[in-house]
Amino acid sequence: VGIPSLGVERFRAELLPRYQALGAPVIVSIGGLGIDEFFAVADGLRDADLAALEVNVSCPNLEAGGLAVGTSPDAVAKVVSGVRQRSRVPVIVKLTPAVSSIAEVAIAAEDAGADALTVANSFPGAAIDLVTRRPLLGRGGGGYSGPGIKPIAIKLVADTAAAVAIPVIGCGGITTAEDVAEFLIAGASAVQVGTATFTRPTAMTEILADLPDLLVRLGVRGAAELVGSTAGGEAAL
Amino acid sequence: VSTTELSYSALHPVDRPRIHHLRAAVTRHVPVGTDHAHLELSAPAIAAEARPGQFVMITVARDGQDTPVLPRPMAIYSIDRAAGVIGIVYTVRGRGTKALRGFAPGEAALHVVGPLGRGFDVPEIPSRVLLVGRGIGVCSLTTVAQCAVPGTEVLALTSARHTGALVGAEIYRSSGATLLEVTDEAGDSAPERVERELLNRLDARPPELIFTCGSNRLATLCQRLAARWGARAQVSLEAHMACGLGYCHGCATAGAVAAGESPLVCQDGPVFVIDPPAPTVSRSSIPR
Question: How far is CA A86 from CA A69, A89, A166, in A?
Fold first, then answer.
């Protein structure tokens, strides 16, 4: 979709203070249309009080004909090492699922200095109105996410966790505590929840409330015990 | 933002609405005409603050069910601040509206988020307003009549394919608006016919504001009439939305201004200014 934002200066002046006032750790997700824009945004956030930076490499790279930065291991390495140099806080890299080998891109990000990986972003998708034959979204296509992508995301998380030593943050269609446990077992150390909050704005707090009972049912003392615990080890998936 | 004939601009920003998430009980759910249903929800916080032209996101998945995954955007059709009730009118079309039709009065509450979006610039002093709506699009306009300050003169045109599909008569009448119903069936809904009728009725004392929703052809007519009368014209756009909050960017308007800069229907709209018609001077007549 090419998600526009206020720009880093206005973000810092107008939006960031409101997030910081909530009292929770703040991770800022950054993107750019071209490699230099990533660096400019990272520079703009250099002295901000953040818990981490997430670099979203799914944005189209206008310098490379619109292909996502995240589809090229070389471009990912370039972006990640540049942001790593500019940032004082951990750098998380959010990978695109639209690649033939996520392990290859994950390794490139790790070697370039990524502290963690988010797996993965939404899939490029489109839908068409049968009567008008026009795309249902104004810009033609958009990011497809939600429960429909969960099995694909689980596989991507497992493949990534098997390929790198840094932590993986899993996401893609999580709506329940059971989904969270599934991602942890596949190899994620943490998770993100997006689409479910559109259906139920309280989804994340409900999931957190449900998690302790689920952990008891699964016979573990904490969520960390589940991480990467597929029966049969990493090769199982 | 441009379509084949019309171009729209974002309205000047106003304070973003204070957004509430609540579980709203169904207080009434009845068919309207042959094609639509009217749902009333107990949503005091939203009813208290909703402004004409705003909308809500309604989750149609029942508790414990996974689908339909995404909430549906619905224009606020009526506001009863005293009772704390908002109304919506919708057509059963896809899976979401089919699921919604199954909620009975008194039944489990729906997740509702709102009020959302940038509504119409309703005048704070008595003025003359023309509302031009077609089909279910009329639902975005009815609250303009309902919330108008006393002394406002409202002419409300509601258009549909056939009589049973007309929307808005009840609320327009009870709001004191002059009602003008046209249908394809009766043969009086073509834009040229509508234009003649509106000129007959209004040319001597034209409206200052023209609000429209539901038809690109009628919006083009509104653009022309606004230019003739020196009126301000605003249109409410419809769009598929996943969040309604400006988060997912799925409702970016067609025809990007520049890469990544299209206004969002949910946050910058749904109401936009209809730009004046492009000048009709030919290239050769432009002085060099």
Answer: 19, 9, 20
Q: What is the pLDDT of residue B256?
A: 45
**ipTM of predicted complex:** 0.81
Cβ separation A199–B57 shorter than 8 A: no
Q: What is the DSSP letter of B185?
A: T
Question: How many other C-beta atoms lie within 10 A of the C-beta of residue A101?
Answer: 11
Are B259 and A62 in contact (CB < 8 Å)? yes
pLDDT higher than 60, residue B9 = yes
Instruction: Enter the tokens of residue A157.
Output: 């998380």
Q: How far is A233 from chain B (nearest CA, A)?
A: 31
Q: For tokens 């402004």, name the residue.
A: B51
Q: Counting every residue, how long is chain A?
A: 237
**Low-confidence winner among A1-10, A78-87, A123-132, A137-146 (lowest mean pLDDT):** A1-10
Residues of A in contact with B61 (CB under 8 A): 199
Q: Is the Cβ–Cβ distance between A53 and A28 less than 8 Å?
A: yes
Residue A17 confidence (pLDDT) above 60: yes
Asked if A3 has any chain B CB less than 8 Å from its own CB, the reply is yes
Q: Kindly report, residue by residue over A131-154, the tens digit of the pLDDT.
A: 889 888 777 778 889 999 999 999
The maximal CA–CA distance of chain A, rounded, in angstroms, is: 55
Integer Cα distance of A7 and A5 in angstroms = 5
Query: Which residues of B fall within a CB distance of 8 Å from A2?
Result: 249, 252, 256, 259-260
Is the minimum CB–CB distance between A88 and chain B shorter than 8 Å? no
